[in-house]
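Standup, Tuesday
Yesterday: got the pipeline producing structure tokens again.
Today: sanity-check two examples.
Blockers: none.

Example 1:
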Amino acid sequence: MTKDDLCYLPATEMSKAIRNKSLSPVEIAEALLDRIEGVNPKVNAYCTMLPEKTMEEARAAEQAVMKGEELGLLHGIPYSVKDLVYTKGIRTMRGSKMFEDYVPDVDAIATERMRNAGGVFLGKTTTPELGWKGVTDSPVTGITRNPWNLERTPGGSSGGASAQVAAGLGPLAIGTDGGGSIRIPSGFAGIYGHKPSSGRVPVYPASVFGTLSHVGPMTRTVADGALMLAALAGPDHRDRFSLEGAPADYVGELNKGIKGLRVAWSPTLGYAKVAPEVAEIAAKAAKVFETLGATVEEKDPGFPDPTDCFLVHWKSACAGLLGHLLPKWEDKMDPGLVEATKEGMEFSAADYVKAQLHRQEHWAMVDRFFQDYDLLLTPTLAVLPFEVGLLQPKGNSDEPGEWASWTPFSYPFNLAPNPAATVPAGFSSDGLPVGLQIVGRRFDDLGVLQASAAFEEAQPWADKRPQL
């Protein structure tokens, strides 16, 4: 096995090799740190690295194996943490000059659980300022690039995480998703991304975006996503919205298949405008589900376009978090975030309550739809990865809420609490990834994982690597 092969090894295979002592956590960490040193300057996936800490944890993991100690679910496997997610004693800049030197004194629950499962910390991944947009560049960390084409964006706001995983710079990445920020970059970078059901993975410290925001896995394979979700999921008293029940056996039940399921395929959700090549690739991917034993019907869910509702929630959150900071920091912030914040400050309390009521109506319609279908398939995004340095694809306005027009399939399932994942569906004629979104009933993260795994088995993607 070459060093590059080792870097692209799935976490599930790393785990088996570590446990049978054919591979050391130290070997894995050394190979990844070497590759990161050579490749990260090209893609800018990591913004904070602590190689001494990484090696210290890897050596401790190796010693535990040799001593025959009880091993955690992720023992010896390297992982990253998005730079919005707190890491105790390690700076968490959030892509912002305002927090460039901020060092939390507490871990996020997700960070804590990855460590407690035996994972080896690799570093923090880049994000746009406070995760506000669907591409990844920030005043602090600059531009992050797509490993498949360095002149294209890897999406956002977990764009550093998607670039990391796609470029073979670590198998596991913690992402966050408040309007698509796991699924958008996973779709653009050709990896697997899973936004769990609301409350499945506890969020602490709480996000200003409330129950719109989720934490979840970003990986190369579905099995790695299932393994990581098994480590992350489960109740926690610090998140008042966390689900009380124990999560399903994501790893053990992963390969049960989807025979007999009722699947809806919606190419537009009834209102989206999708690039022809994206639509064609996603439609072909949806047909694969018929060969897996499911019944597939083209059907729109029937809910109205919820963009305005979502933008009231989103811009109001920006205003509440940042409005009082503008006098001091405006000239050092991302101009688009400043504009979104100012627009949010114009909303009234009545506007926000109306948006809350609209959200409840939206969720009720989504819930009714899933009484007739087990899964909903859509394209992950409406466009192909576009040029770095742009807020929107060429031809779109630079209005800060305009990103909703090219991400129309993601945020409806932040307004609703359903689990949703993206799987690589294929590549465009110029070699850019296209994703297929798989949405399940609320609580049915296992069903989404099983459908993702069945599709992956029928149309595998993990052997494909970008040329860097």
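Example 2:
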Amino acid sequence: MPRMTLSVPRMLAQFCDGRTRLPVSGADVGSALEDAMARHPLLRTHVLNERGEVREHVHLFLNETDVREDLGAATRDGDEIYVLQAMSGG
């Protein structure tokens, strides 16, 4: 199973034992996210909605490729998955 790094914004670090970079493993982006969320359950509510879909204001990148709509994107050893949250307000 490929091993990679999941990077989360500092505002989500509080749900990941204070860490912004987490070691994860999985054959695809979705399974790598599940690996992280199994160890850090509160992360789930900030990344996925009630239907298990990526939240509207969250973007996911596998290395430099936007995979928000493709959680089945295959991963390889050494890949990086980035969780980015859009800021909004007025």
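Quick observation on example 2: The mean pLDDT is 94. Residues 3-85 form a domain with the Ubiquitin-like (UB roll) fold (CATH 3.10.20.30).
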